[in-house]
Amino acid sequence: MKVDDSGMPEETYWNSLFDIEGIVDWLALSKKTSTIVEIGCGYGTFTVPLAKKSSGEIYTFDIEPSMIEVARKNVRKAGLSNVTFGLMDVLEQGTGLEPNCTDMVLLFNILHFSKR
Q1: N or C: where does the chain have the smaller number of CB atoms within 10 Å of the terminal CB?
Q2: What is the per-residue pLDDT across 36-53, written as a single tens digit (0 to 9) for each?
Q3: Cross-sheet strand order for the sheet of 57-62
Q4: 8-state DSSP, 96
């Protein structure tokens, strides 16, 4: 359910706002963390480092086709093959994944709502 378009800052600037590696390290992914769901992949800011550190599949979703396109490009550029993209509104449609099939669900900087 996209209510307001918050817009995305330019990718390099956006990525500079976070300690991406520190955040991913803090998650303490291990070989036991086999399936991760990420809601709102944006540019793939967290998708790529998550996929590099995970032994399993990353299912990432975004409501914006342009964000899926950029994130997919960034995943390919990193030479990763363990990311599956879903272009959908997970609030309206869900993820399509089976219940209890994931080890971790992550949402980073979801900015589409004017009332937080």
Answers
A1: C
A2: 999 989 889 899 999 998
A3: 83-87, 57-62, 35-39, 104-107
A4: -
